[in-house]
Every structure is written in C-alpha cells, then in structure tokens.
C-alpha cells in the first residue's frame, strides 16, 4: 500500500490513542458523541415538524402524525 491510504487516518489514530489513555477522557468523548447525536435527532424532529406545519394544506393529519412519530424514534 502506498502513503495516500494512511494519509487520512491521522484523526482516527488520534482518537484511538486518546481512547486508550485516561478513562476520564474516554468518558468525556462518549458524552460528547451522545450530545451530538441527541442534537442531530432534535434537528430531525424540528425540521419534520416545521415541514409538517408548512405543508399543512397538502398533507393529511395521519401522514403528519406518522412522520413525527418516526422522527421521535431517531436516537
């Protein structure tokens, strides 16, 4: 393999070396990942509700309820 294959692995290597170090660092890393995944899930809910309000004339209430209930299941 050539150098270009390993060139993009700098961040992965940094995360792996960080994860094998201090346990508090690993806990903080997992908490930040949890915060970001919750934030992305909240954005999905926000935009699905916003699109449901904007398209209230064209969408049936059952379809809006179905899309919001599916959006609430996103972690």
Can you characterise this structure?
The protein contains four helices and no strands. The model has no long low-confidence stretch (mean pLDDT 78). It is an all-alpha fold and 75 residues long. 79% of the residues lie in helices and 0% in strands. The longest helix has 32 residues, at 23-54. The protein has one domain.
Taken from the alpha-carbon principal axes, the silhouette is rod-shaped
Uncertain residue ranges: none
What assembly state would you assign to the polypeptide chains in this entry? single chain
**What average pLDDT do the residues reach?**
78
How many domains is the backbone divided into? 1
Structural class: mainly alpha
Count the E strands. Answer: 0
The value of Rg in angstroms is 20 Å
Separate helix tally:
4
Order of helices and strands: HHHH
The largest sheet is: none
Helix share of residues? Answer: over 70%
Fraction in beta strands? under 5%
Terminal residue distance: 38 Å
